[in-house]
Amino acid sequence: MEISQENINILDTKDMLGKLKGFAVQCKDGYSLPVPSLSSTSVKKVILSGMGGSAIGGDIITAIASESSKIPCFVNRDYTLPSFASDEKTLVVIISYSGNTEESLSVLREAIKRKNSVVCITSGGKIEKIAGEAGIPLLKIPGGYPPRCALGYLFFSSYKIMEGIGVVPPIDKNIFTKMEQWIEKFIPEKHSNLARNLAEKMYNRIGLLYSNNRFYPATTRWKTQLAENSKTFAFINVLPEMNHNEIMSWRYPEWFIKKCLPIFIVSNNEHPRVDLRFEITKEIIFKKQPEIIALTTEGESLLEELFYLIILGDWVSFYLAILNSVDPTEIQEIDLLKQKMGGGHL
Question: What are the residue numbers of the active site?
Answer without folding.
Answer: 228, 244, 338
